[in-house]
Hints:
The chain is α+β, with helices and mostly antiparallel strands. The protein has one domain. The protein has 2 helices and 2 strands; from the N terminus they run αββα. It has a two-stranded antiparallel ribbon with strand order 1-2. A hairpin with a 4-residue loop joins strand 1 and strand 2. The chain is globular. The mean pLDDT is 88.
Amino acid sequence: MIEQILANALKYTNSGKITLSFDRDKNALKVKDTGIGIKSEDINKILIEAIRVLMTYQ
């Protein structure tokens, strides 16, 4: 899943920057880019897929 997020950041950021950071308190990897972004109607699809992936590892 992380690989796909990074691949999308690279694919859709033609110019600008991609920033990776890790929040130790929340145990979370953060990816921020200056790409075209995600349509609001697609965010739920991405979250549902992320939950499916996480559940397969439990």
